[in-house]
Design goal:
By secondary structure, this protein is of the alpha/beta class. The protein has one domain: Metal-dependent hydrolases (TIM Barrel), CATH 3.20.20. The protein contains 17 helices and 8 strands. Helix 8 links the parallel strand 3 and strand 4. It binds zinc ion. Zinc ion binds next to strand 1. InterPro entries: A_deaminase_dom, Ado/ade_deaminase, Metal_Hydrolase. This is Adenosine deaminase. Keywords: Hydrolase, Metal-binding, Zinc.
């Protein structure tokens, strides 16, 4: 019997993946955004909605920022069942890309306060119910990371952590911080982080995004005890710290399909020369490709790994290493990690054996990432 063969695109879609840097509302489909606006009688034309979605950038001629999109979406989600629906749709889209595990951020301090049924507890319950539904129907595991909106006050962040303490849930694993970092580096929120740490929550943070100084990563790790960094690209400007964190194995969730650098270098050919993701890998840092804002930024998990190969020059053995890095850097139980390391490796290898062709990478661009 002839063995079933796979194209590279099939392969990127089918091998098992964990996405550890996923903003829940970045995964809202365009049609869902429009349906939510319709449901709550909010005026939003299709063309205006499309401005938030990179897939429609050429058609609209403009692109609003990801943060603007999330801000609009939080205002449009006015009932716990909206969160249930969005999480199920996120799972459907991820499942179609071979994703087996997601740790997703959401921002409790962005809940619209004028709706009495929308508070930390009711939304957590709706998300937990949806998590059980998708685990049961698709076998996809999702866990939650409430995330500080750093454009709001440090006290709002403490309120969020106090809600987490008052209403603990086994699906809530830790805290994060996101939104615009320029005037709000992580130390401003030290109290919220300290409180979360005292209550045994795991800690991650967006640090040194938008080309901001490596100091933000250093402060996060050394002062706030952040154990996993989101973005963190400018760390490579400090070789001493880079070596230290490479040795320590600090995980960095990196976003191959979207960073501020791409606005500087719109040509894909430049990415292979200049993008810090390559330098991070070469320096031996623990990197994990993730999607960030799935629909808003018009990407998928399969696309992120494709970009790692086609635009950044990593070979397939490198992808296997990153897949295992993603399991190790996750906050799921040790027992589950051990199972996944074995079963995902087997799946990766058996799918790879069916490839009709391996990617061809020019020697001068090739990276063999083996940490
Ligand atoms: Zn992010």
């Amino acid at each position: 019997m002839q063995q079933e063969s796979l194209t590279l695109s099939d392969f990127y879609h089918q091998f098992p993946k964990a996405d550890l840097h996923y903003h829940l509302l970045g995964g809202v489909r365009l049609n869902t955004m429009l349906a939510l606006a319709d449901k709550y009688n909010v005026e939003l034309s299709e063309i205006d909605a499309k401005c938030y979605y990179r897939a429609h950038q050429e058609e609209t001629g403009k692109m609003k920022g990801g943060i603007e999109a999330l801000t609009l979406l939080y205002s449009l989600m006015r009932a716990p069942e909206d969160y249930f629906q969005v999480l199920v749709e996120v799972a459907e889209d991820a499942h179609a890309c071979g994703v087996k595990y997601i740790e997703t951020f959401w921002n409790p301090s962005d809940l619209p306060s004028e709706y009495a049924n929308m508070n930390y507890q009711t939304v957590t319950d709706a998300l937990a119910e949806a998590i059980e539904h998708v685990e049961h129907t698709m076998g996809l595991v999702i866990r939650l990371i409430p995330s500080i909106n750093r454009e709001k006050s440090p006290e709002a962040a403490i309120d969020m952590v106090n809600d987490m303490i008052a209403y603990p849930h086994p699906y809530i694993l830790g805290i994060g911080i996101d939104y615009k970092e320029h005037n709000a580096s992580v130390e401003k929120f030290w109290k919220a982080y300290r409180l979360a740490e005292q209550h045994h929550y795991r800690l991650t943070a967006h640090c040194s995004e938008f080309g901001l100084h490596w100091r933000n990563v250093e402060t996060g790790i050394e002062l706030i005890n952040i154990e996993r960094i989101d973005h963190g690209y400018t760390i490579i400007d400090n070789p001493e710290l880079t070596e230290k964190y490479a040795q320590k194995g600090v995980p960095f969730t990196v976003i191959p399909s979207n960073t501020y650098y791409f606005k500087q270098w719109p040509e894909h050919k430049d990415w292979c020369q200049k993008h810090p993701i390559r330098a991070m890998a070469k320096a031996g840092l623990n990197i994990i490709p993730c999607t960030d804002d799935w629909h808003i930024h018009n990407t998928t998990s399969a696309n992120c790994y494709r970009v790692m190969v086609e635009d950044f020059g990593f070979d397939l053995d490198s992808l296997r290493v990153m897949m295992l890095n993603s399991i190790d850097a996750s906050w799921i139980t040790e027992q589950q990690k051990q199972q996944w390391r074995i079963s995902w490796s087997e799946m990766f290898d058996s799918l790879r054996a069916k490839l009709t062709t391996e990617p061809v990478i020019p020697q001068e661009h090739l990276i063999q990432y083996r940490r």
